[in-house]
Amino acid sequence: MSLVSEIMTYNESFVQDKQYEKFVTTKFPDKRMVILTCMDTRLVELLPKAMNLRNGDSKIIKNAGALVSHPFGSIMRSIIVAVYELDADEILVIGHRDCGMTGLNSANVLRKAQERGVKPEVLDTLKNSGIKLDNWLTGFDHVDEAVIGSVNIIRNHPLLPKNLPVHGLVMNPHTGKLDLLEEGYEVTNKNSVGLEEFPFI
């Protein structure tokens, strides 16, 4: 049985047995927060349990490394929608120790892409089009610095209110222990960053 067939078979019984009833909630986060975190498999159940979150408590956005790499990319758009359309009034950026984005090397990723069938001429075309694959596919050296970097981009975004708390945390992916790097309540935005300070613009 294929992966998708297995999923569909299970889903049929899940719906038929009304197992969904214990997860019923609304689209608005009960705890009025949005979390940006990593897509690491270890955090799927651990992070909500370690934070005492139930279904419906928070908007959770995931990507590789819990990174905001572009101030006008899809991650920032999701955060802005969560704040203005879905009533979130606090933001938590939660990275984790032993993250796969630590030391990510673009050359290794591109080599594996070619091994899986991506033609070298495709990479050349992308590079010649001005797409900086080396920058785009590079991770970070230290998760703490990466989290603070994402916090600063969010906190200083021109489309978000200056009194919006943005917190930075790092989780141990084995124990669930959270380290608070930056508490957003204590930070004032005296030095708001202008658009010229954002990369890629």
UniProtKB/TrEMBL annotation:
Cofactor section: Zn(2+)
Residues annotated as binding Zn(2+): 38, 40, 96, 99
Catalytic activity reported: hydrogencarbonate + H(+) = CO2 + H2O
Enzyme class of the recorded protein, top EC level: lyase
Cofactor note: Binds 1 zinc ion per subunit.
Domain of life: Bacteria
SMART domains named among the record's database cross-references: Pro_CA
EC identifiers of the protein: 4.2.1.1
GO molecular function: carbonate dehydratase activity; zinc ion binding
Pfam family of the protein (one): Pro_CA
Family designation: Belongs to the beta-class carbonic anhydrase family.
Protein name as catalogued: carbonic anhydrase
Organism: Paenibacillus lutrae
